[in-house]
Write a structure and sequence with these properties.
Length: about 160
C-alpha cells in the first residue's frame, strides 16, 4: 500500500501480473466498503488484468456493487486517423439484484477487446476490417472510400443497440 484512508487506497502492483494484483485490490476495496460504506482502490505499476467482469463480480459475493476498470496502451485508431491513439480501456459493473440475477456489464471502449485482438495476432490472422483499424501499412486497413461507405451505413441504423 502506498497510501490509505478509511475508504480509499493506492496499491503498488510492483510490476506484477494484474491477474494477481486485481483481486488483491478488489478485496481491499471490499474490506474498506464494509467499514466505511464505500471502498475505492487504485493500482499503479501493474500489467494486463484479464477479464474486468471477473473483478467486478467479486463484489457480488458480499452483496456489494463491484466496479472494475483499467486503462490500456494505445491500440486502436480513431475514425479517419492513421495513428493508434485509444486503448480498449475496459469497464465492468456488477450490481446485486436480490432474488433476481445480478446485473453485470463488462465492456471495452472500442469495438474489440484487446485480448481478442491479441489472439488474432498470435494466430497470424487479420482483425475484421470493420472492427479494428491500424495505420495504413497494416493488412487489415480499409480504403478511405470504404470507411466512408460503412460509416454512412452505420448512421442509418437505429440507435437502440448496445455492442
Amino acid at each position: 500500500m502506498i497510501h490509505e484512508t478509511p475508504s480509499t487506497a493506492v496499491v503498488d502492483g510492483d510490476g506484477g501480473l494484474g491477474l494477481v494484483v486485481g483481486p488483491f485490490a478488489m478485496k481491499v476495496a471490499m474490506r474498506k466498503a464494509e467499514g466505511a460504506g464505500t471502498g475505492w482502490v487504485s493500482v499503479k505499476n501493474s500489467n494486463h488484468y484479464g477479464i474486468a467482469g471477473y473483478h467486478a463480480m467479486m463484489g457480488l459475493q458480499a452483496d456489494m456493487i463491484g466496479i472494475a476498470m483499467t486503462n490500456a496502451s494505445p491500440l486502436v485508431s480513431p475514425t479517419f486517423s492513421r495513428e493508434r491513439l485509444l486503448g480498449t480501456n475496459p469497464i465492468a459493473v456488477a450490481i446485486p439484484a436480490g432474488e433476481e440475477a445480478p446485473f453485470v456489464a463488462d465492456m471495452a471502449t472500442t469495438t474489440a477487446a484487446n485480448g481478442k485482438l491479441e489472439i488474432l495476432m498470435r494466430k497470424g490472422q487479420d482483425a475484421p476490417e470493420a472492427g479494428s483499424k491500424t495505420p495504413r501499412d497494416c493488412p487489415h486497413r480499409m480504403h478511405m472510400g470504404e470507411k466512408r461507405r460503412r460509416t454512412a451505413a452505420l448512421r442509418r441504423r437505429p440507435r437502440t443497440w448496445l455492442t
